[in-house]
Amino acid sequence: MGIRILLKQNVVYLHCYKTKRYNNRFSTNKMTRVIKFTKMHGTGNDYIYVDSRNYPVSHPTEVAIRWSAPHTGIGSDGLVLIGDSQTADFSMRIFNADGSEALMCGNATRCIGKYLYDYGLTEKTEIALETLSGIKILRLQVAAGKVESVTVDMGKPASLPVDLTGTGKRDMTAQPIEADGQTFIATTVSMGNPHLVIFTETLERIDLPAVGPKLENHPLFPDRINVEFAQVLADNRIRMRVWERGSGITQACGTGACATAVAAAITGRAGRKTDIVMDGGTLTIEWDEHTGHILMTGPATRVFDGEIELEE
Length: 312
Fold this sequence. Notes:
With about 300 residues, the chain is mainly beta. It has four helices and 23 strands.
């Protein structure tokens, strides 16, 4: 496999080509086609975005693994496919860096809002987006013809019952869980995907690469779980680090920020509106008292546009 890269006017063109190998009488030659993509990030949570209506990807699991690789691919936390929808304005499918399909990603939804508006695919500043965890409403804040930030109505949070004692599933709020030889006090929250939130007074001492995968794959969670460690700061702020299911440590997690805000509220650590400070930036999370919905507001940033050849 060879790669040609052309950088012109802030656009990266990444061309991969297959070299022929001959073994006596036989050669293998696969068909390729060029896929246009955009790399974007929301508070450092970066994905590869493809308009699959114009550039269909038939094997996204394999492609997500290959393209997400930091040294041999484009490098990202995963792949996002934007498509048509029969029930909303557009749809999204998201595949993690390990190829697993995610139900939802708050940072990705904000980036999709910017993508759709900035590239002229819609003139709406309120967009209905179909996801595997339901339809999400995106409200775009536009300045000088470009999207600066996006507020996403993430819907209502839900409890995530767990069978802690072997006697049946019950709500898990501030309950002990053991992993890596340690006992943590944790709360589970569903934001359309599962989260385990653990508050600590010493966030910098948490060995996230060691304990993150142990909690993600804990026997209590047969479908695995996203893990957030959080520390309450002054001025109604919460510092959070995340181990994402299927991706490992990421700079930010939108649904994780929402779950952390919910867990802080129900355990009396914060009010209904708080700033969640992550490695990649800050999101403002508001738990609306009248609707019960979670509103997430934050930036979305285009990194670069590119082209890559896809073997078929």
